[in-house]
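Task card 7
Instruction: Convert sequence to structure tokens.
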Amino acid sequence: MKSPNSNNVIRYAIVSIIALIGLSSILKGSIFIVNPGERGLIINLGKLQDEPIDEGFHFIVPYVSSGKTINVRIQKTVVKSNARTKDLQRLQTEMALNWKIDPLKVKEIYQTIGSEQDIDIKVITPAFDEIIKGSIPSRSLDNALGQREQLREEVVTKIQKRLAPFGVLVADVSVVNLIASEEFTKATEARQIAEQEVVTAKKQAEALIIKAKGEAESQKLLQQTLTSQLLQKQLIDKWDGKLPTVTGGNNIPLININPITGQNKP
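Output:
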């Protein structure tokens, strides 16, 4: 049988443990830490405190007050979309939006929309997708593919204006990828091959023209230099000293060898 003192010690130990657990819970509930890149909101009995609190260590009343942190760092939203260009070509787009919550409007955003995840899903992604799809149809496919910077600038201007009333600041927009339809890609490749063939044929035609002009000039120069005296000299140079022999027939050919021998007979 246990003594009364032993029972008191056990009770004291149990009470002490419970007290420590309760105190630890109270201390934990009374500490609110706001990390760098965040803003804090204090909720007192379901009502938001007037002003957000900055980074650091804060005390709140346990079971009466609670804290909520909102990320005000730059975040990224990537949207993949499909749209038709002005010439009715299908274009796949992938763009990235860098944005952050205005630290001065944290309370308003939390009251009207919710957390940063809520504002991304409810506001940013739908608006970004709509603006991208609205910017493509005003361009031809060649224009959209060739002028990515102009497309990016247009999207930046529109999304900044669209998100400003919600307390969202736009840092930048990046055009990650623009992909034309497979049919357009094949047609473009076929056109490039045809254009290359035209260029090759043109060069070949120009080469033939130059060659023909050169041959014509050569013939013209040859005609100017081939006089009768030159022809006679060439014939003499090639003659082996033998007169041609003709057999058969009743007609005897008369060969004028004066140009060859250079002598005149009576």
